[in-house]
Write a structure and sequence with these properties.
It is a single chain. The protein is α/β, with parallel strands linked by helices. The chain has a single domain (about 1-250), classed as L-arginine/glycine Amidinotransferase, Chain A (5-stranded Propeller). It has 6 helices and 15 strands. The chain has helices at about 30-45, 90, 135-145, 160-165, 215-225, 235, and strands at about 1-5, 50, 70, 75, 100-105, 115-120, 120-125, 150-155, 165-170, 170-175, 190, 200-205, 210, 225-230, 250. The protein has a 3-stranded mixed beta sheet with strand order 2-1-15, covered by helices on one side. Strands 3-4-5 form a 3-stranded mixed beta sheet, with no helix packed on it. Helix 2 (about 90) links the parallel strand 4 and strand 5. It is globular, with a radius of gyration of 17 Å.
Length: about 250
Amino acid sequence: MIQAISRLPSPALPACELTHIDRQPIDLARANAQHAGYCAALTSAGARITVLPALADYPDSCFVEDTAVILPELVIRTRPGAASRQGEVGEIAPHLPMDRPHFTVAAPGTVDGGDVLVVGKDIFIGLTLRSNADAVAQFADATARFGYRVTGVPVAKALHLKTAVSALADDLVLVNTEWLDPAIFGRRHIASAAGEPFAANSLTIGNTVFHAMGAATLARIAAAGFDARFLDLSEFAKAEAGLTCLSLVFQTV
């Protein structure tokens, strides 16, 4: 069964961390409505979703993807690159699946889950302002016994790796080819459309692919045989967030 964990937006969301975009006003009522629509959409695609309460002390805490990476064999608790977010890991920990061992990234390693792309037995980790080579080495050590290959990927033009690439299936990725060479991933790829720079972030639940940025890219996903659905997450885009940021999706063992 597909499980998902999400968290309601913090009332402090307008004070979120920003790196690549200018701050804009965030409408909290609209953000909550969009979040409710997101959770309903994942449920409609077959996911069983747990929605956690908002955390007033952590503006970015609805972006639960950054706090953990859930593999079939192992849960990896991250150490976010922004110091203001590191306490979020302890808040999410009791809600992570306990049917597999846990590993926690330690200092000086830093890594946001948004920088971690798992495609089959390959784990690609963005080397960004939030995630460093020490964390890549820790991931490699923790996952080697399960047969994973871990590769660091330099990312210069986006906050996270998954801003520029996401997995549509184990053998297919969606890539902004102006930001990343698709050959890095050793798989078939669909290029996001020109003029839609943030359209490479998508979320796959079964055969359903949710997409929030770019009609032309959405059409390309649909043409590849997926049930492609648009979700409006415009308030979260003001916080540099995409579809994958708002949930932790995993299979029950």
